[in-house]
Design a protein that fits this description.
By secondary structure, the protein is an alpha/beta fold. The protein is built from 13 helices and 14 strands.
Length: 404
């Protein structure tokens, strides 16, 4: 068994096009939620989202290549490029590319391609679609393009478990590196599904807020859809040390569970089992955890249930936890959510600053923990958790600790 460290991170989201920009926005409590600009909104009731702003694809990719890249893949490639550059992973040396895994989570894959294709076919009556429609929309496209673009020929696959996809992907990559199935891994999540069809589907569930996302407070009305990608580089500690790589944090544990209950209603018991699993896997006692990046969607049911789960696991120590939801700023990026949020946990450890829960108004008696309302807080963070709980009752929790 090997210790696993994070040596690179890349991010693109509504908060910025680089990891540092995204983190600074989280730290400042700046929201990326704004009126939708990338799609027509005349059919929509909810007309706000956390879109990637000022995004011009041709600044990142040649025009001819864009014909084969859905927006979800573009985001994944941008984040992967930043992560690999920051890590300096020497893929060309000693056959490392053959021993590096690529595991990327996404909830639904190429939704822009699918939505555009259906509009052409059913709305405009155009019978002929782009010959690469299927390769563009397939869920594994992001993992495949990262593998091909960077010449990584080790195990490569995708994970699709709704809002827990990124955490499941990162957890699988972590276990592969820890158990010697790979020497390194490029992993995370990507999502780009702010389309008319997707928005209408979410509207039908009646879990969307009309204005903004206010996790854990009494005035919360629901989630706000987001998009983007977060990609990490994981390595064996001994390899990272040997090459003098920057070590951001140690990925120490991973826990999973299934509620085995309702398709959409969350379960405190199921969430608690995943949290306990991550702590056990990391060999971290509850009193070692200083910060929890919560799933915190801003829906009435999720936030109260997650609070119950934390109280169940941490007992008296729950009152000493700093808990925040960065979805209040970058929105709910579904299959990419856990990867975006892991940035908050990493930087809380490295910077000694806990990002806030933005847009917070009045405390809710059903949400009785310290949610770091509106302003970041300086705090020494030795260990942190990042929670992801998905529709279908699928739960995934990552445990990080400071590397000394």
């Amino acid at each position: 068994m090997y210790r696993v460290v994070i040596t690179g991170y890349g991010c693109i989201s509504a908060l910025g096009h680089r990891a540092e920009d995204c983190w600074q926005a989280m730290r400042d409590g700046r929201s990326g939620i704004a009126p939708i600009t990338t799609i027509p909104t005349d059919l929509l009731s909810v007309r706000v989202a956390a879109e990637v702003k000022d995004y011009v694809p041709t600044r990142h990719f040649e025009e001819k290549r864009l014909a084969y890249l859905d927006r979800v893949v573009q985001f994944a490639l941008i984040a992967a490029g930043e992560a690999l550059a920051g890590s300096g992973l020497p893929l060309a040396e000693s056959g490392l590319a053959e021993e590096t895994a690529v595991i990327v989570g996404t909830g639904v894959g190429g939704q822009n391609t699918q939505d555009d294709s259906y509009r052409r076919l059913y709305g405009e009556g155009i019978a002929r679609l782009h010959p690469f429609t299927i390769p563009k929309l397939m869920v594994n496209a992001a993992a495949s393009h990262i593998s091909m673009t960077f010449g990584i020929s080790g195990p490569a696959f995708s994970v699709a478990s709704a809002c827990a996809s990124a955490n499941h992907a990162i957890g699988q990559a972590f276990w592969m590196v820890r158990h010697g199935q790979a020497r390194a891994a490029v992993t995370g999540g990507s999502e780009a599904c702010i389309t008319v069809g997707t928005m209408k589907g979410w509207e039908a569930m009646r879990v969307m807020a009309m204005d903004t996302c206010r996790p854990f407070c009494r005035e919360r009305r629901g989630m706000i859809l987001g998009e983007g990608a977060g990609i990490l580089v994981l390595e064996r500690l001994e390899d990272a040390r040997a090459r003098g790589a920057p070590i951001l944090a140690e990925l120490a544990g991973f826990g999973m569970s299934a509620d085995a209950g309702d398709l959409v209603q969350p379960s405190a018991a199921g969430a608690a089992r995943a949290i306990v699993g991550a702590l056990k896997d990391a060999e971290l006692p509850t009193d070692r955890i200083d910060y929890v990046n919560a799933h915190g969607t801003g829906t009435v049911a999720n936030d109260a249930t997650e609070t119950q789960a934390l109280l169940r696991v941490f007992g008296d120590h729950a009152g000493r936890l700093a808990v925040s939801s960065t979805k209040s700023m970058h929105g709910h990026a579904l299959g990419a959510a856990g990867a975006l949020e892991l940035l908050a946990a990493i930087r809380a450890i490295t910077d000694g600053v806990v990002p806030p829960t933005a847009n917070f108004m009045t405390p809710d008696p059903d949400c009785s923990l310290d949610y770091v309302p509106n302003e970041a807080r300086e705090r020494v963070v030795g260990a942190a958790l990042s929670n992801s709980f998905a529709f279908g009752g699928l739960n995934a929790v990552l445990a990080l600790r400071r590397f000394d």
